Amino acid sequence: MKAQYDNIFVTAFIPWQGKALLVQRVAGEEFLPNYWEQVGGKVEPNESHEEAVIREVKEEAGITVKPLHSYHQFEYTHADGHLMCEIAYLCKLIEEPNVVLSPEHQKFMWVTAEELNRLEPITDVMRKVVRRGFKETNLQ
Q1: Architecture of the CATH domain 7-136
Q2: Is the pTM of this model over 0.90?
Q3: What are the per-10-residue average pLDDT scores of the chain (140 residues)?
């Protein structure tokens, strides 16, 4: 991992019954309002990437997961000029999911790979990350 990143973010591909969990950002969000994404967030200081995945999924969706391994990483420059890194993890549910969203998200859905192709709005990068998650789990 490069030390020059200003922030590192993690996201979780969470499969269940042939589908994957996606959440929709709230309409009032400044960055990408109403967009669909995987559950995730910023890695805090002194926190491992895996610890961040577990914490973020619990905070944002109210469910418990076990990160299995990372499967995709990309970097980008934020509008404010900061260099960011985002790492996607394949996760396993610890218990049957009872999703309870945080105030950061307004909806959730479990989508198939085919439904993902028609889902809007979602960034091209996020669609690619989720597609890759489906391939990693052979749910394509």
Answers
A1: Alpha-Beta Complex (3.90)
A2: yes
A3: 78 97 94 95 96 98 98 86 93 96 97 97 96 89
